[in-house]
Design goal:
Blueprint (H helix, E strand, L loop, with lengths): L3 E6 L2 E6 L12 E4 L20 E2 L3 E9 L3 E8 H5 L6 E7 L1 H4 L2 H16 L8 E7 L4 E6 L4 E3 H7 L6 H20 L2 E2 L8 E4 L2 E4 L6 E2 L15 E4 L6 H4 L6 H17 L9 H6 L17 H7 L11 H9 L12
Helix pairs in contact: 5-7, 5-10
The chain binds adenosine-5'-triphosphate and magnesium ion (MG).
GO molecular function, one term: protein serine/threonine kinase activity
Keywords: ATP-binding, Kinase, Nucleotide-binding, Serine/threonine-protein kinase, Transferase
InterPro entries: Kinase-like_dom_sf, NEK_Ser/Thr_kinase, Prot_kinase_dom, Ser/Thr_kinase_AS
Length: 337
């Protein structure tokens, strides 16, 4: 994606140029609302006002940290905690962007993100603290742990040829452990990509469950967003079956995480950064080769997770974890072949 995105409302397509685009990540999530009977038209929606300096009378905004496909993320100080002597009152605030805030579904989507993330307590998943509504500007926002460090897309800009095995292995194991935990607790991430993973003080943090979904009876009371009404994906990490209208699955998360790991291993996207439905049409699966820095023993499991046909994508997060874990950092030379 470039810096311009499209929001497709029932009435047509609205191109949106993001503020701070120069600093915006390459792979923004594409959002499109498709027509439904009870679709809220932008004209009927509440008019959204500017974001005040202090949100909900408590969180003083300090600076912009990032701009995503749908939200703005700020560093803020929790004035209440500060008043009671909290030595570290800083939080990150994720608040709906102006255009999206006008849509009734947007707050429900943000609340779902909050609920999914709160459900998951894992050292490699960013923590959320609260969901709030800012009364003045009428926008939902989440407070969450403030991370500092690089997202993997920025890391890849600094390391265009990928990472050595010792670093790749550490990141892969933490990321796969987080994903296996989320899947075991009935939550699908739905939007795994380099800009949704942070290296925070050398620890991997998976975040942005905004397109997540629960399964297996987990969080049943949560408003569920129908993908028929609300399509969203990041084209080069979304599994091809999502373009065909199938729902999220552990397999679609596996496809995305495998693309990220491949990219970390050699600096290149496995399917030349084209959307996976096009990769399938062009039969790019045939051209996949093991990245040189990836030990031979890891390749079969990673290759299985990268399959464009979901029926052949038999690897799960634990299989892939085991494959990466089986090759130690020392004495690795024998396994590169
Ligand atoms: N807790 C946090 N601490 C520090 N920075 C953060 C935090 N959360 C998000 N960011 C920064 O803001 C960016 C956008 O955040 P996030 O991915 O949650 O928004 P988004 O609107 O869901 O994005 P998209 O849907 O395009 O992936 C991140 O890539 C990251 O740089
Ligand atoms: Mg994101």
């Amino acid at each position: 994606m470039n810096d311009e995105q499209s929001l497709t409302f029932a009435g047509g397509e609205v191109p949106v140029t993001l503020a701070g685009a120069a600093d915006a990540p390459r792979d923004l999530t594409y959002f499109g609302f498709v027509p439904a009977h009870d679709q809220v038209q932008p004209s009927q929606a509440q008019t959204v006002k500017e974001i005040p300096r202090v949100l909900a009378g408590r969180y003083r905004i300090e600076r912009l940290l990032g701009v995503g496909g749908m939200n703005l993320v700020y560093k803020a100080r929790d004035l209440l905690h500060e008043q009671y002597g909290d030595p570290d009152p800083s939080v990150a605030i994720k608040i709906l962007g102006e255009e999206i805030a006008e849509c009734a579904d947007a707050s429900a989507l943000l609340f779902s993100e909050f609920a999914f993330t709160r459900h998951l307590q894992h050292p490699n998943i960013a923590r959320v603290y609260s969901f709030n509504m800012e009364p003045e500007c009428q926008r939902g926002f989440i407070t969450q742990e403030l991370m500092s460090g690089l997202t993997l897309d920025k890391l890849l800009c600094e390391r265009p040829d990928g990472l050595p095995w010792s670093e790749l292995r550490d990141i892969a194991l933490e990321l796969l452990d987080a994903l296996a935990y989320a899947h075991a607790h009935g939550v699908l991430h739905g939007d795994i990509k380099p800009s949704n993973v942070m290296l925070d003080n050398y620890r991997v943090k998976l975040f942005d469950f905004g397109l997540g979904q629960s399964f297996g009876g987990v969080l049943p009371g949560l408003a569920r967003l129908s993908r028929e009404r609300f399509n969203a994906w990041t084209p080069s990490y979304a599994a091809p079956e999502l373009f065909d209208g199938f729902g999220l699955s552990t397999g679609s998360d596996m496809f995305a995480v495998a693309c990220v790991l491949f990219e970390l291993a050699c600096g290149k996207h496995p399917y030349l950064r084209v959307s996976s439905d096009l990769a399938r049409d062009l039969n790019l699966g045939r051209t996949l080769r093991r990245p040189r820095k990836l030990p031979r023993r890891c390749w079969p499991a990673l290759k299985r997770a990268l399959r464009l046909n979901p029926n052949c994508r038999t690897s799960n997060a634990l299989h892939l974890y085991d494959a990466f874990n089986a090759v130690p950092v020392r004495g690795v030379s024998a396994s590169f072949g």
